[in-house]
Design goal:
Layout: H1 2-13, H2 15-21, H3 23-52, E1 57-62, H4 80-89, E2 93-99, E3 102-108, E4 111-120, H5 124-128, E5 132-135, H6 140-144, E6 149-152, H7 154-159, E7 169-172, E8 175-183, E9 199-203, H8 204-210, E10 218-223, H9 229-243, E11 254-258, H10 259-302, H11 304-312, H12 317-353, H13 364-390, H14 394-398
Parallel strand pairs: 4-9, 6-8
Antiparallel strand pairs: 1-10, 1-11, 2-10, 3-4, 5-8, 6-9, 7-8
């Protein structure tokens, strides 16, 4: 406690110098905390939304990255016929829908907004666990008849200045569409990375008729049971292989991904991104450590006479060494605390300033890691000044002016 008191007294006495010394540590820790909070905020939101779909959720993408180049058929596509095939022939499948996305401008009485277009079937609310708040969703008949109807997300309705959206006519794909419903607020992104609340959901057949009739996409599949997702995934795979008429020696021309695999992949990507940033920012912390070492060497020189008095009064070399190590560690710790607070503030500021940005999340491990590393940097770079102070000759130190 006496050593700590002495360290704080010395830091307070030279507070401006101490503040400037810890800036490298402050900025390094701030960057680590801010980036970690932003990345973890994205992951937390994404995983929450994905878990909300239920464990029995499959995504099927065209193509197969695991197959050798040139071994799969060219222009492999997934269509509405594939979704129908899976839904009819696989008992474990509750519902399936084709799905693709597009960015288009939607206009209403001269006011326009960028919207994420989601062409799908009438089973979308069941599969995505995303339901109607106002009005209704389109029906199977409207899908067959290629009706020009649209269901909008709440944020998109607000961007168009609509308080009562149902019944309004908007222009999309250069054609008039009638708004028949508004989805409930979901506040997040779907498995493909699109914002639910800014979506314009239209019948799949309608979108194809106004764009490209041969356009493919992906399949969204909802399972009845989640006891054996792998078994259901294998049966979906066999059904699609039969429908695509793939031979026994031909690889799949599609890729099936489960909810657990999507979460694992996203967690790995976010983890790698976080650690890459931490490693890069570590350079800043090392620079801060060098600054601490320099100022501690100056401090040793300035306090040479004080060290001589302490040694003459019976202080051991280990006491002197501990005094300077604690002071260096305290400088690093103070920089860490300030950096943590600044990092949290920056993350929340970014979230507040950027539209539709997820709320940041600061895990305890990142705080402990940042603080521990900042203190460690201070102690490590304080070793040489502390050893130099402990090696001083008491007689020479007392004579020092």
């Amino acid at each position: 406690m006496e050593t700590l008191r002495t360290a704080f007294a010395s830091i307070i006495e030279h507070r401006l110098r101490a503040m400037l010394t810890t800036l490298g540590v402050v900025f390094g820790v701030m960057a680590v905390i801010a980036v970690t909070a932003i990345v973890q905020g994205f992951f937390r939101l994404y995983s929450t939304q994905l878990e909300g779909l239920g464990a029995g959720f499959l995504l099927v993408f065209p193509g197969n990255n695991q197959a050798q180049e040139g071994s799969i058929r060219r222009n492999s596509r997934l269509t509405a016929a594939d979704a129908d095939e899976v839904e009819r022939n696989v008992d474990e499948v509750l519902a399936a829908t084709p799905y693709f996305f597009d960015r288009r401008t939607i206009t209403l009485r001269g006011q326009s907004a960028e919207a994420t277009i989601m062409p799908t079937l009438e089973t979308y609310p069941l599969i995505q666990n995303h339901h109607i708040e106002e009005g209704r969703f389109f029906t199977a008949r409207e899908v067959r008849e290629r009706a020009r109807v649209v269901v909008v997300g709440p944020d998109l309705a607000r961007k168009l200045g609509l308080t009562r959206a149902v019944g309004e006519t908007v222009r999309l794909y250069g054609a008039p569409f009638t708004i028949i419903g508004v989805m409930e607020e979901k506040d997040g992104i779907n498995p493909i990375g699109q914002n639910y609340d800014e979506a314009a959901i239209v019948p799949h057949t309608t979108a194809l008729s106004l764009t490209n009739p041969n356009r493919g996409g992906i399949l969204l599949i909802k399972l009845k049971e989640i006891d054996d997702v792998d078994l259901a995934s294998e049966q979906v795979r066999r059904s699609l292989r039969r429908h695509h008429r793939l031979g026994s020696g031909e690889p799949d021309d599609f890729t099936i991904t489960t909810q657990a695999e999507i979460l694992k992949t996203f967690e790995e990507v976010s983890g790698v991104a976080t650690w890459v940033v931490i490693c890069i920012v570590g350079v800043s912390l090392l620079v801060g450590g060098i600054g601490i070492m320099n100022i501690m060497l100056v401090s040793v020189t300035e306090r040479t006479r004080e060290i001589g008095v302490r040694l003459a009064m019976g202080a051991r070399k280990t006491d002197i060494q501990r005094q300077f190590l604690v002071e260096a560690g305290t400088l690093g710790g103070i920089g860490g605390v300030i950096g943590i607070a600044a990092g949290v503030g920056v993350a929340h500021l970014v979230s507040a300033l950027v539209p539709d940005f997820p709320a940041p999340f600061v895990p305890l491990w990142s705080v402990a890691l940042a603080f521990g590393f900042s203190v460690t940097v201070g102690v490590v770079f304080g070793l040489y000044p502390a050893a130099r102070a402990a090696r001083l000759d008491p007689i020479e130190a007392l004579r020092y002016e």
